[in-house]
Write the structure tokens for this entry.
Amino acid sequence: MVAGVFDSGAGGLTVVKSLLESHLFEQIIYFGDTARVPYGNKDKQTVVRYSLETLEFFNNFDIDMLIAACNTVSSLAIEELRAHADFQILGVIEPGVLALEKCITNKHDPILILGTQATITSGCYVDLLRQHGYTNITQKATGLFVPIVEEGISSESVLQETMKYYFHAIENPCAVILGCTHFPLLARSIGNYFGGIPLIHSGESIVAYLHTQQEFTQRYPHTHIQYFASENPHNLQAIAKRWLFPLG
Amino acid sequence: MVAGVFDSGAGGLTVVKSLLESHLFEQIIYFGDTARVPYGNKDKQTVVRYSLETLEFFNNFDIDMLIAACNTVSSLAIEELRAHADFQILGVIEPGVLALEKCITNKHDPILILGTQATITSGCYVDLLRQHGYTNITQKATGLFVPIVEEGISSESVLQETMKYYFHAIENPCAVILGCTHFPLLARSIGNYFGGIPLIHSGESIVAYLHTQQEFTQRYPHTHIQYFASENPHNLQAIAKRWLFPLG
């Protein structure tokens, strides 16, 4: 089984980490659109155009499926990708909502969705959660979270003030959907702020979803990965090596 | 006199504001590369490519000069722009250093340069300041400043903690070069942190520089502006209207 994984930049490596741990893939081809990152502050038309250009890149490979690790792509361009692709396209929105359902069965419990401005504006998580019967949904664009992760800022006081800034007026949720590939790297701070509630992670959600699919009968002890990027692929490879294989 | 003004996004409007107040231009044509913003986390090759593509856009207009309002473009791509342009190309680095010289005559006084990662990595401010005889130069990439401005965050505690995070280990400077078009919008907080020292602003520096140039003999009571953007020009126009003409 060969998967393409597409993200606006390096954030999708949080999804790759989960895919590696799952042993469901023989090969992963990762593409990060590092020359145009981030997508989360762009509009739908632009994100669709970039996504379809990336699809052309993946047409050069013999992949079984393309995983749009990026929540912004999954929110804004998944239908357009499906309309143009010869292989299965998997986004992270539906798997995220299915993963939430395993934690939160009372549909009146308050749920918080975090994401980029584009993901939040699309309303796609809210729409799908409503279809699944959830009634108490809040969403919040947390635009500083991506640059905080990319800057590697671990200062507790910066993190705490930023959390307070975004969350001070929000009802304490029973679960949080981390609707951006960068946000799992802030899971500890977000969890601390809200007091140990379930945090829904796109990578883990995708893996749980794949385990329910019939075609995934085989397990692979090793997954071969190739990294591509629209700018400076060596930098992406270095981040991946440091982060996915810290002891390697 | 007709100027093109080029920025990676909307940040260059801080420079436009100064140009409007100067009455030196009959017409300004502004282009923001909003579909690919920001430039400050991209590498030189990418910034040069984007800048030369933007130059082609300006070839459609009869401009007397192109002002690279963006410090990242001024740092990484000014020579390449000059090599390909049929009109004068003006960056913000040299005007910034000249403006500093009017405030700081003791070349041993500590100077702090703030900018995007790309501007700081290029070292172009440091090189030019050394050529001008400055000996005590510190520079710092402050990656959160652009998203803080773009998010419109005015929370004093977020701003203070972010300033502390970046500046706690830095010797108190006698002047700060605001080496990014967004940073003048944080001038109050930066000024408060360092206690009312001179802050060098790209827009004011460019205007001071233009006033020394012979060809600027005429003054125009009104400047006509046109806004173009690689994504959602209406959004850029709305920001400009709200920000440059708050009472209009």
Q: What stands out?
A: The two ends of chain B are 24 Å apart (CA to CA). The interface with chain A takes residues 34-37, 41-43, 45-46, 143-144, 146-148, 150-151, 153, 155, 157-158, 161-162, 164-165, 231-232, 235 of chain B (CB under 8 Å).
